[in-house]
Amino acid sequence: MNWFFLTVGYSGLSPKAPGTAGTLAALPLGVAILLYFGPQTLFLATILITIIAIKAIDKHESIVHEHDDSRIVIDELVGMWFALSIAPGIGFDLSTLMRWNNGIAIQIVLNFIFFRIYDIKKPSIIGRIDREAKGGLGVMGDDIIAGFAAGISTAIVWQIILQSGLID
Q1: φ and ψ at 70, to 5 degrees?
Q2: Domain map of the chain by residue range?
Q3: What percent of the chain has pLDDT over 90?
């Protein structure tokens, strides 16, 4: 069960781009929670998963003596879910899910793109946390900050789109 959790349903075992595979595996589940329970529930669930994951990663690292195993992608789930939960305007229901002019799909895509950019490039404090923090907090920390940065970036871009009149 622990390996299933840490690899997000074994998506981290993908031979190519396990981080992207983990993010893609996390996305539909995060959107489903957002759809049925709202952003507050997604945010709180993400905090709970973060706490559990830090302890699980610490335990895994004490056994294998390897920091930040690329197969562990629960950190990508947490980052993606934080991004989804803080970006504005992603409150929706089933009747509006497929309407492009409400911005839901655009914001989900923007969150994914921004999160992957920040997670891969690791600018500023994201890279510093990745390099200097140890254990489960080190594995999770950079993705937590990348998720918040992605949510904020999505909010800014979404406001620019709304102000420009591209979406009515």
Answers
A1: -65, -20
A2: 2-164
A3: 64
